[in-house]
Amino acid sequence: xxxxxxxxxxxxxxxxxxxxxxxxxxxxxxxxxxxxxxxxxxxxxxxxxxxxxxxxxxxxxxxxxxxxxxxxxxxxxxxxxxxxxxxxxxxxxxxxxxxxxxxxxxxxxxxxxxxxxxxxxxxxxxxxxxxxxxxxxxxxxxxxxxxxxxxxxxxxxxxxxxxxxxxxxxxxxxxxxxxxxxxxxxxxxxxxxxxxxxxxxxxxxxxxxxxxxxxxxxxxxxxxxxxxxxxxxxxxxxxxxxxxxxxxxxxxxxxxx
Amino acid sequence: xxxxxxxxxxxxxxxxxxxxxxxxxxxxxxxxxxxxxxxxxxxxxxxxxxxxxxxxxxxxxxxxxxxxxxxxxxxxxxxxxxxxxxxxxxxxxxxxxxxxxxxxxxxxxxxxxxxxxxxxxxxxxxxxxxxxxxxxxxxxxxxxxxxxxxxxxxxxxxxxxxxxxxxxxxxxxxxxxxxxxxxxxxxxxxxxxxxxxxx
Lengths: 257, 199
Hints:
The complex is a heterodimer of chains A (257) and B (199). In chain A, the strands form two sheets. In chain A, strands 2, 3, 6, 7 and 8 form a five-stranded antiparallel sheet that branches. Chain A contains seven helices and nine strands; from the N terminus they run αααβαββαββαββββα. The longest helix of chain A has 21 residues, at 53-73. Chain A is an alpha+beta fold and 257 residues long. Chain A has helices at 14-24, 28-42, 53-73, 127-131, 159-165, 189-192, 245-248; strands at residues 114-117, 136-143, 149-158, 174-179, 185-188, 198-203, 206-207, 217-219, 232-238. Chain A has a domain at 78-248: Oxidoreductase, molybdopterin-binding domain (Sulfite Oxidase, Chain A, domain 2, Alpha-Beta Complex), CATH 3.90.420. Helix content of chain A is 26%, strand content 19%. Chain A is elongated, with a radius of gyration of 29 Å. Chain B contains eight helices and no strands. In chain B, α1 (2-20) runs antiparallel to α2 and α5 (106-130) runs antiparallel to α7. The two termini of chain B are 27 Å apart. At the A-B interface, α3 of A face α2 and α7 of B.
């Protein structure tokens, strides 16, 4: 019998004689003892049975890989479907990580939009200044990661127009947001420059109401609901991954639709 | 491929139940926490978005292999109406033969075709739910975003229904399990079934 796994020259049978006492010691109980120690070793890997660290890390690595697949799938010129004004839900649906009764309204007169990061003109903006910028209205679907959706009519300056106006580095990777309700968020530059991405100040032809982000919020047609921060107080353009509120708890960052 | 698919299916079904529970489709229908993969929606989602690759790639390999080798056609076709009636009658009389594990009866053929179609439908409706803007054409073909969710849910129900029957029957005929684990039943000279004397 020729086999690549078998030595051509058989070893000297005398070797076996030399090691016979040692071989005698190989007993079944040795196997059982060894098996037990091996079993005990597996207990060292983690104590949290519901979500072991290693599983969590593997899932997060997969999620980051999915983020890049999603960025590749994202077509910067593809517009989301729009709808007639008759289908708009009034008022829009409220959803946050807290109840609607816990909303802390923002005073529009005192409010300023701070800018930081890779932006040439970092002077803060007031509400009348933002309202004077070119406006765009989109009647688009809001899709929540939970599964529900509604159609809303949003008006405001396109984020692209705003970023161009303040001299932001449009080659940077991320646009990050800070909000009055402590809900940090960030998006990729490609989505920030999408024509339907708005810094919304109005809903259904009316000033944005308090629970929905007055005076300024983000509205994108190409991302899930939780990626749209409300009550925005600061915008940063950066190349360092900024993360976000839900992302820190495990949700996917790109969340494109 | 069968066992890879079994793992992927279980991951997708149980993590899907975790995602479902945040916004139920059938009022009052919740899945118990013990049955869900992921201790809350974020991790169920991450499981679902990781498992989808295993399911889709394995499924694609299975279908390509089945079509190229002609195995799918050989095993699952033809289905004759008369055979279906006969199998149903035999089943009711407890006279089903299991001697030849390499050929499927008519009802088995129908069930396997249904579950393969359901699996493919899950991938398509899943894509529509995952990327309703990038694949907006697909979503309108399915009748809208919520309809894509309903069909995705119905597909899950079909697959779970199949699974219950499939696992129960394989336990009733244990030699099928042995064949699945050891790489198939013994094949006789004709290419079908066990040779005489082995039965």
